[in-house]
Structure formats: structure tokens, C-alpha cells
Design goal:
Blueprint lengths: L1 E4 L5 H9 L4 E4 L8 H6 L2 E4 L6 H5 L6 E4 L9 H6 L3 E3 L6 H16 L2 H9 L16 E5 L3 H11 L4 E6 L10 E4 L3 H4 L5 E4 L13 H6 L5 E4 L8 H9 L5 E4 L19 E3 L10 H19 L14
Parallel strand pairs: 1-2, 1-3, 3-4, 4-5, 6-7, 6-9, 7-8, 9-10, 10-11, 11-12
Protein name: Hydroxyacid dehydrogenase
GO molecular function: NAD binding; oxidoreductase activity, acting on the CH-OH group of donors, NAD or NADP as acceptor
Keywords: NAD, Oxidoreductase
Length: 316
């Protein structure tokens, strides 16, 4: 059994070798640098490389499993992976720790007017009358009720916030006051003081939000997007923000990344931008490797995995 990593894992490399002495491990910085002899003989690919494509996978005739060290898998050739019966796992649940903290940080930054305080500091203005607002009693409307939303909902409950979610199934989840099927989203938008997208990118979620959806939100609503930028067409989002259909947006993901310097989002005063960093976490490799170890132990015995397998039909 040969495992090839798409990036270096530091001390975790020795741990993997010690845990599985019967497995051959190769640790390579990028997918394009994998030697042809390793492509021909590898059984498992682990790690993350945004440039991993179908062409490279075609060079790996024995590939049985991709252990993806990220949550989103929409950049991968899912059709090819499915057609060739390749197992795909991801880091679902691990990044929720960091993402949920970012979401709460965005909310507190906005409610406590930290941005305004920083601008005042830069301009040497001392405004002791500035007043923030409390979180308690306000409502978060989550698009998606997966690991990110569930962990954030738990944190939000510490601030006595109300949490509503929409999902494909409408199944009730812990920490949520209400969960509805996503087909009822239009009727729920006016309830959210904060609307947060944490949905993955699928055929059903691309451009899910239309201009009229922003019209239905409160003028005081804050929109946070840590899911996928394709949830709303960029021009539609810019128009809604320019027309002040909502009060503010915190955006970490975008329809086209990276943002170019001439992007109109940079010109808007009611937008806070982060550069797709909410999933960056110094401890993530260790956490995902723990999942990989558990799965590899099972895979070596039963040729299957037991945790975080991606549904290739759904794309998550």
C-alpha cells in the first residue's frame, strides 16, 4: 500500500510512518511534483492542492481513496472520481471550530463597532458616546445546518441569541430553535437580524440568493458568507449592498477568487472583506490526520472508511 501526500506534514509524517510501518509513505509539496513512478503505483492521495485535476488522476490507475484535507470538494473532478469508484473523504467538522469563532468575531466586531473605533483611532478621534448593541434576543438565520452552523449555534446560545436554520431535509438539529426546509427560505428571510451562509457549492446552491431575497431581509440585516461565494451572483450582491437593501456584509468567499484590485466590492463602505481565511487553522492538519489514521486503520482491514466520506452525488 502506497500513500502519497500532496503537501508536507512536518512531525505528522513520522507519526504516520510509525503508526503504519507496513505502508509506504511519500510526502511531496505539490500534486504536479509527484513523480510518474509514484503516480502509477500509489493507492491513496492525502492532503490538499487546489490544482489537483482529472489529468493527474488519470495518471494514477491504482488510486482507491483521496483523503482531502479541506471541507469543500467542489474543485475536484467529482464525476471522474465517482466513475472510477474512488473513495473521497474530507475534513468536515474540523474547520467548523475555526469558522465558528470567525463568525462570532464578525458579529462582535459589527455589534460593538470595533471598525468605527479603529477608524476613530486612526483619525485621533475620542468618541466616548459611541454605543454598541447587545447580541441577546437577536436572531441568526443560517443557510445550512451542518457542522459549521451547529458549532456557531452552540456559541450563539451563550449570548442568548435565537437560531433558525434552513436545510434540504429540514431536520431539527441541536442548538437550533427552528429548522425548516430550504424551500421556505423566502418566508424566513425577514426574521434574521443576521443571515449566514454556510452551504457547500452544489447545483442547487449556485446563485440560490436573488436580489429579491435581499429586498425581503431587514434593512438592518447583516449578511455573513463563509460558505461559497457562488451562493449569490456577484453583480447582484454589489447591487443589493449599493442600494442598502441590507446594512452590512462580512464576506470571506467570493464568486471569483482571488478578488482583483478593481473589484467593486472594495469600493463599498458597508462591506468587510477577508481573503478566504476563515478556514485557515494552525491545528487543522493534526485534527484531519487523526481522522485519516482512523480511516486508514479501517481501510487496511476492510477496504472502506468509517468517517467523513463524501457523498459524490450530493458533493458534500
Amino acid at each position: 500500500m502506497k500513500v502519497v501526500s500532496l503537501f508536507r506534514l512536518g512531525e505528522l509524517e513520522d507519526k504516520l510512518k510509525e503508526t503504519f510501518p507496513q505502508v509506504e509513505f511519500k510526502f511531496i509539496k505539490k500534486a504536479k511534483n509527484i513523480p510518474n513512478e509514484d503516480r502509477q503505483s500509489l493507492d491513496i492521495l492525502i492532503g490538499y492542492d487546489g490544482n489537483l485535476d482529472e489529468t493527474l488522476l488519470e495518471d494514477c490507475p491504482n488510486l482507491k481513496w483521496i483523503a482531502w484535507y479541506a471541507t469543500g470538494v467542489n474543485s475536484l473532478p467529482l464525476k471522474y472520481i465517482k466513475e472510477h469508484n474512488i473513495t473521497l473523504t474530507n475534513s468536515r467538522g474540523v474547520q467548523a471550530k475555526q469558522l465558528s469563532e470567525f463568525i462570532i468575531a464578525f458579529i462582535l466586531d459589527d455589534y460593538k463597532k470595533m471598525r468605527t473605533s479603529y477608524i476613530n483611532q486612526q483619525n485621533k478621534i475620542y468618541d466616548s458616546k459611541m454605543t454598541g448593541r447587545r447580541l441577546n434576543g437577536d436572531c441568526i438565520l443560517f443557510l445550512g445546518t451542518g457542522a459549521i452552523a451547529q458549532r456557531t449555534a452552540k456559541l450563539a446560545k451563550a449570548f442568548d441569541m435565537k437560531v433558525i436554520g434552513v436545510s434540504k431535509s429540514g431536520k431539527q438539529k441541536k442548538w437550533f430553535d427552528e429548522v425548516h426546509k430550504i424551500e421556505y427560505l423566502s418566508d424566513l428571510l425577514e426574521k434574521g437580524d443576521i443571515v449566514i451562509n454556510s452551504l457547500p457549492e452544489t447545483n442547487e446552491t449556485i446563485h440560490l440568493l436573488k436580489y429579491e431575497d435581499f429586498e425581503k431581509m431587514k434593512a438592518s440585516t447583516m449578511f455573513i458568507n463563509v460558505g461559497r461565494g457562488t451562493i449569490v451572483e456577484e453583480d447582484t450582491l454589489i447591487e443589493a449592498l449599493s442600494n442598502n437593501e441590507i446594512r452590512h456584509a462580512y464576506l470571506d468567499v467570493f464568486e471569483k477568487e482571488p478578488l482583483t484590485p478593481d473589484n467593486s466590492l472594495y469600493e463599498l463602505d458597508n462591506v468587510t472583506i477577508t481573503a478566504h481565511i476563515t478556514g485557515n487553522d494552525q491545528g487543522i492538519n493534526e485534527d484531519v490526520t487523526k481522522i485519516f489514521i482512523k480511516n486508514l486503520e479501517h481501510f487496511l482491514n476492510y477496504s472502506s472508511v468509517i468517517e467523513n466520506e463524501v457523498d459524490l452525488e450530493k458533493g458534500y
